[in-house]
Amino acid sequence: MKSELKAFFRAFTYAFSGIVHGIMTQRNIRFHLCAAVTVLAFMGFYDLTTSEKCVIFLCIGGVISAELINTAVENAVDMYSTEKSPGAKAAKDCAAGAVLVMSVCAAVCGFVIFWDRAVFAEIAEFFACRPIAVVGAAVWAVTAFLFVFGIKKKK
Questions:
Q1: Contact predicate 116/46, CB 8 Å
Q2: Can you tell me the distance from the alpha carbon of 60 to that of 129, in angstroms, rounded to the nearest whole number?
Q3: Residues 153, 25: contact at Cβ < 8 Å?
Q4: Longest dimension (CA), the chain
Q5: Which residues are catalytic?
Q6: Are 110 and 56 in contact (CB under 8 A)?
Q7: Tell me, what DSSP letter sits at residue 48?
Q8: Which of 29, 56, 58, 130 could staple 67 via S-S, CB 3.0–4.6 A?
Q9: Do 68 and 19 contact (CB within 8 A), yes or no?
């Protein structure tokens, strides 16, 4: 029983290690994480229902999960395919296509949930009246850019 419980919790450390590996090696995962943080920050301007919030969290989780699966497929193909084969290319392309499909669906859900001109005006007014918020947004933009493009892949 004790060894089963230990193995159960060890699986979480492996999963966390995979997430960290994805973040450290995959620019697109970092991009999607920054997009998710931005979406979560702007959710405060909206009066969202519980269902809308759930859709947003499922979209974020779906895109990040798809990116992690894509990374796993790419690593497995690279490990077992030493030459360029049509099957290896197809596997990698299909995994990337899955990420694209999930990302487009998430973006469509985002447009449906967030498209509200009155809220856009409220957001613009918020930033117009608070220069420190503009500075904070600029700092976030630079930080996100550096996070996405500044981490180099370990070879």
A1: yes
A2: 30
A3: yes
A4: 60
A5: 67
A6: yes
A7: -
A8: 29
A9: yes
Residue 61's closest CA among 112, 119, 19?
A: 19
Location of structure tokens 């904070």: 136
- Residues 42, 123: contact at Cβ < 8 Å? yes
Which is nearest to 63 in space by CA: 92, 91, 9, 26? Answer: 26
Residues 60 and 39 sit within 8 Å (Cβ to Cβ)? yes
Q: How far apart are the first and last CA of the chain?
A: 40
CA distances from 72 to 60, 114, 137, 148 (A): 19, 32, 33, 19
Average pLDDT score, the chain:
94
Instruction: Quote the tokens at residue 116.
Output: 């509200």
Domain ranges of the chain: 2-150
At 98-154, the pLDDT tens digits run: 999 999 999 999 999 999 999 999 999 999 999 999 999 999 999 999 999 987 665
CATH 1.20.120.450 given to domain 2-150: no
* Number of residues written out for the chain: 155
Cα–Cα distance for residue pair 35/20, rounded to 1 Å? 18
d(CA 63, CA 85): 27
Residue where the block lists tokens 């990040």 = 64
CA–CA gap between residue 107 and residue 35 (Å, rounded): 11
